From TrEMBL:
The chain crosses the membrane at residues 30-48. GO terms for molecular function: oxidoreductase activity. SUPFAM superfamilies: FAD-linked reductases, C-terminal domain (SSF54373), FAD/NAD(P)-binding domain (SSF51905). It is an enzyme of class 1 (oxidoreductase). This is D-amino-acid dehydrogenase. It comes from Ancylobacter amanitiformis. Residues 29-419 form the FAD dependent oxidoreductase domain. Keywords: Membrane, Oxidoreductase, Transmembrane, Transmembrane helix. Pfam families: DAO. The keyword Cell inner membrane does not apply.
Length: 437
């Protein structure tokens, strides 16, 4: 977190923050726990329904995964991470501690139940189900995001420059074709490119990349933190408010849902939306919902904007990272480290990706970069948890989006607003229910 973001949070919070909470504080209409991009989108949509909404945030607005992600609306990214072939690739990845996937040995016993569910989610029938559900959610995500961007005045922060996925060999490209065929069956447009067309889409690539696939409907934001803070401004402009505090327990009762905070204070709400990202599991567990929510620790380095003439976001799928053009710089990041919330960052992972990016993009200037690590909340089947708690229908879950939180935030916000208002959701939500495992 840099000084600019701290100052911006402080200035905005001053306008919306409540006073210290009294133990008998009056009930709020609806409280959204978590002011990341998903919580902000939920609050924005609820306010559009005429609801009185207060955000409850343990740190600063958009200071978690919403702060330093790759900044993409990845509407074409419908393939679940758990796939029929993933278990064949995983051992080789795990042998490389700085590769696309890593698990610290000390964390392996804790994550083993999640890994077993992850393996089951990759079985052909389950994979196909998750892919179809993800595609349906992505269609809603695209339309809902377009509407939210216009309603919140965020259009200047969105670019429609597409994504270019790059392959180092014919064999790697051929192996990816079934995934593109699955996308085609869902109406997703793309273009395979070689030679002059590939160089036109992105000049300066290493000649090791012989083919690429361009998806024109992929979008990027100017900067994910700026986008989230602009949405926060729109939430406040619609009449929303924010309180800073850490929720430690939810207690449903006859008069509403009481939220217990770490400082001993309480807040009462008619309804609650739990959108705490990677920190959501303990609160859900306290209600009796034991969810297999894990943490993908993602790393990146942001270089100066002039570090490379980057025309659009590039995906190096075989190496598990992307390079994104932001107004704040060239961001090199990705990879998956399943290591929980407590371990310190291992920025050697950022350095390894940056070294590869320099080889893939000759001329990339790598000096003076800013490193970052964030926590992505991930479910074994790559599908988020959206819908009411099994313990109380006044508590709604909105978390577990993995690396697609920004992409699916507006869709999640729309679904939560519909559910909280008692209307049928825009798409079926059975596949997102918390007790599906």
């Amino acid at each position: 977190m840099n000084s600019h973001s701290v100052a911006a949070n402080a200035a905005r919070a001053a306008a919306g923050d409540g006073q210290p909470l009294a133990r008998n504080d009056a009930a709020s209409d609806i409280i959204v726990i978590g002011a990341g991009i998903v919580g902000l989108a939920a609050a924005f949509h609820l306010l559009g329904e005429g609801r009185r909404v207060r955000l409850l945030e343990r740190n600063g607005v958009a200071e978690g995964a919403s702060y330093g992600n790759a900044g993409a609306f990845a509407f074409t990214d419908i393939l679940p991470l758990a796939s029929p072939g993933i278990l064949r690739k995983a051992p080789a990845w795990l042998l490389d501690p700085l590769g696309p996937l890593s698990i610290p040995p000390s964390y392996l016993p804790r994550i083993l139940p999640w890994l077993i569910r992850f393996g089951r989610a990759g079985l052909p029938d389950r994979y196909r189900h998750s892919l179809l559900v993800q595609a349906r959610l992505m269609r809603l995500a695209a339309t809902a995001m377009d509407a939210m961007v216009d309603a919140a005045g965020l259009r200047p922060l969105v670019r429609r420059d597409g994504n270019l996925q790059l392959y180092e060999s014919e064999g790697e490209w051929q192996a990816a074709l079934p995934g593109w065929e699955a996308r085609a069956s869902e109406g997703i447009r793309f273009e395979h490119a070689r030679g002059e067309r590939l160089a036109e889409l992105q000049p300066g690539l290493s000649p090791r990349f012989t083919v690429g696939t361009f998806t024109p409907h992929w979008q990027t934001v100017a900067d994910p933190y700026r986008f989230a803070m602009a949405l926060f401004d729109a939430v406040i402009a619609r009449g929303g408010a924010i309180t800073h505090g850490e929720a430690v327990r939810l207690e449903p009762g006859p008069d509403g849902v009481r939220i217990h905070l770490a400082d001993g204070s309480r807040r009462l709400a008619g309804q609650v939306v739990l959108a705490g990202g990677a920190w959501s599991r303990p609160l859900a567990k306290g209600l009796g919902d034991r969810l297999p929510l894990e943490t993908e620790r993602g790393y990146n380095t942001t270089l100066a904007p002039e570090a490379f003439d980057l025309r659009r976001q590039l995906t190096f799928g075989g190496h598990g990272f992307v390079v994104s053009p932001l107004v704040t710089g060239i961001r090199v990041g990705g990879a998956v480290e399943l290591g929980g919330l407590a371990a310190p960052p291992n920025f050697r992972r950022s350095e390894a990706m940056l070294k590869k990016a320099a080889a893939f993009l000759p001329g990339l200037r790598t000096e003076g970069g800013r490193q970052w690590m964030g926590f992505r909340p991930s479910m074994p089947d790559s599908l988020p948890v959206i819908g009411p708690s099994t313990a109380d229908p006044r508590v709604f879950y909105a978390f577990g989006h993995g690396h697609l939180g920004l992409t699916q935030s507006a869709a999640t916000g729309r679904l939560i607003a519909e559910l909280a208002s008692g209307r049928p959701p825009s798409i079926p939500i059975d596949s997102f229910r918390p007790d599906r495992f």
